[in-house]
Fold this protein.
Amino acid sequence: MMMVRAVPGDKNIVAYKPDPAGLKLRLIAAQRLKSVLGGEHFSPLGAADLADGRDRALANRLITTALRRHGQINAILSELLEKGMPPRSGTFEAVLRLSLAQLVFLPDLGAHSALFLAVEAIKRDNKARHLSGLMNAVLRKAQSNSARYGLMDEGNLLPAQLTEGWVKAYGNDAVAGFADALISGAPLDLTLRDMDPDLIDALGAEPVFADTVRLETRDRPVEALPGYDEGRWWVQDLASAIPALLLDLPGGSDVLDLCAAPGGKTAQLVKAGYKVTALDSDATRLTRLRENMARLGYAPEVVEADAAHYDPARLFDGILLDAPCSATGTFRRHPEVLWHRSAADIAGRVKLQRALMTNALRSLKPGGTLIYCVCSLEATEGEDQVDWALGALPDLVLAPIRPEEMPGLEAAIVPKGLVRTHPAMTAGNSDGGMDGFFVARFKRNG
Ligand SMILES: C[S@@+](CC[C@H](N)C(=O)[O-])C[C@H]1O[C@@H](n2cnc3c(N)ncnc32)[C@H](O)[C@@H]1O
């Protein structure tokens, strides 16, 4: 809690003593936000970053609000900072964004702490302390405009560079739903090893599709949920659970999971009874895959290799290629993807996806099945890649996905028997949405 004392003689001015916990959590939140602004992937602060659970929850709330409202905060900043963001100024930008998130979008947290602690935080940063006056002035101006800023046009929430293509692909209503989904975030989806009604009850979960259940809790550490230690489920968005279900091969088939870490789909393939080889090029992510499999009691073969050059000794009955992509479909949990992706960056991934698909064919038996999927909302990484593959890889034919394979989610099947999900789509009785995913199923001519 903030300590407040009135300044004698002036009832409008109060001086604040920095509350060490409030200041510390802001300093840590600012460091995390700074690294995300610098291009890193967002992951919420954990107990190792900030031991106190309440402080951690508050710090994470500040960071996620700053990221979800990034577009609106950009618009506010362009009004407030006439000369733009001061260059090479340490944590200045991160502290300012966190404080604007609090002032404008989290009014329940109070304005005074946003202002005072921002200035105190800046004074503790050698690269930014000379800007404490600017911080103070900018936040005071923001405070007097906060009601107007709070009513700001939601059109600023999503970057224009991406929305243009989305409106064409999904229509205006869906894109308005994307903005809502960005603000509300995502529920917690789990894939269950077995659909035990007692476990589902104990989790307080609701079945939404196949073996995915949904929990509305968004803050509880997953390790504390029933069944975690026993490896009875793993965290995986509903949409992410669709591709592995569509492989549709007999039990015991030899399946290669390309780009497998951290292993959500690997676990589904093992659960389906296939003989699974999980491959990824990233050793750190493979360590996580191994840990995840150990918790679940699953034992796929694990290979560290570059999927663009992998040349195995045997051919596989089925291949799942969950290709690296722009990940724009995951913006509910990773709002930063909206602001990190340039057109050139997406074009680079399109090229890599083609190389991976081409090389995957070298490992596929004639008559075998290839699932290609991406967690992207961009047609260039999805629908357009199918057109490219059918032209460039004459061995491949489409194996259309049938409505009976997607009970309750038939609406996700689009022309040519492809699957397309997006965050404004609903499943079951839940209005919690799902990630944007694209899935195509091919057969190799045999
Ligand atoms: C979308 S993630 C995979 C998620 C995973 N399939 C799951 O369900 O948990 C993409 C993965 O591709 C891997 N990757 C990127 N380039 C690769 C390459 N050339 N060869 C193999 N893996 C690659 C990354 O390390 C990353 O783990």
